[in-house]
Amino acid sequence: MIEVLIYLFCLLSIGTALTTCLSSKIIRSTFFFGITLFLIAFIFIVVGSNLLGVVQILLYTGGTLILFLFSIFLTGDWDYNNLGETFHKPVSSVLIAFFFFLTTSYLITTSEIFIKLEDKFNINKIVSTQDISVSLFNDWIFILELSSILLLATIVGCLTLLKFRKEID
Amino acid sequence: MFMSLIYTSLFISSIGIFMLLSKKHILSILIGIELFLNGINLFFITICKSFSDDIANIFILFILVITACEVAIGLAIFLLNQRINKTIDINSLDRLRDN
């Protein structure tokens, strides 16, 4: 049952990611991007990382999607000269993306480390939220503080840009 | 199942790279970066299932923080560009320096 769900979510997430890329309107692209984020969160939950799935849905999908939607609504007429529909150098972009996919796939399929990892792969392993929080507040406290400073700097940066915009007006 | 998850993550990352390189709309470029990082997150979580410790979960939490910061700043610049230059073209961002 879990395997079927994972295969289903994988296929759906690839499909919605492709639709995100190929949608002509940016609002449709954002909508399918949100569905992709939800499906990836469902994969997280199904494989046992419940905390990450919930964080992805509540904070990441919710926050990011709301930011994108607000940006689209605030800019009003969002498809200037059909900019969302056009592709800039599509052939070279496809080639680079395909090269990335082929190279990483080749490295992974031929690597002995990944063959060992595949043997050790355990889908039933549930990641405990308590273990993550204990590890986060003991071993990774310095990085946690750094990320909080980064968030603070982001708030200050956004406010500075907003102040700059107000002066222009 | 391991390889299907790995290939899904790589495919989503490739789509993100394609969006990042091919689109001129700033929001599409930001969505491309998000897709790429989500593919990487899925890759990490798949690898994490083969190890005994939960280090990948902590890495993904930090990646989520960095992504949220990047989106907030990116969208603020997008709004500023649209307000000043009256365009959403990525090539007009350098004109923000003059104002």
Summarize the structure.
Chain A is an all-alpha fold and 169 residues long.
Commentary on this structure:
With 169 residues, chain A is an all-alpha fold. Helix content of chain A is 80%, strand content 0%. Chain A has helices at 2-22, 26-46, 50-75, 90-110, 112-120, 129-138, 141-168. In chain A, helix 1 (2-22) packs antiparallel against helix 2 (26-46) and helix 2 packs antiparallel against helix 3 (50-75). Chain A is globular. Chain A starts with a helix and ends with a helix. The relative contact order of chain A is 0.07. Chain B has helices at 2-22, 26-48, 55-85. Chain B is mainly α and 99 residues long. Chain B has 3 helices and no strands. Chain B has one domain: Helix Hairpins. In chain B, helix 1 (2-22) runs antiparallel to helix 2 (26-48). Chains A and B meet through helix 1, helix 2, helix 3, helix 4 and helix 5 of A and helix 1, helix 2 and helix 3 of B.
Helix content of chain B: over 70%
Q: What is the 3D form of chain A?
A: globular
Number of strands of chain B: 0
Overall mean pLDDT of chain A stands at 81
Give the integer mean of the pLDDT values of chain B. Answer: 83
Any low-confidence stretches of chain A, pLDDT <50, length ≥5?
none
How many domains would you count in the coordinates of chain B? 1
Query: What fraction of the residues of chain A are assigned to beta strands by DSSP?
Result: under 5%
Q: Helix count of chain A? A: 7
What's the end-to-end separation of chain A, in Å? Answer: 58 Å
Order of secondary-structure elements of chain B: HHH
CATH topology of chain A: Four Helix Bundle (Hemerythrin (Met), subunit A)
How many DSSP E strands of chain A? 0
CATH class of chain A: Mainly Alpha
* Individual helix count of chain B: 3
Helix percent of chain A reads over 70%
Q: Largest sheet of chain B, described in full?
A: none
Strand content of chain B: under 5%
Indicate the multimeric state.
heterodimer
CATH architectural name of chain A: Up-down Bundle
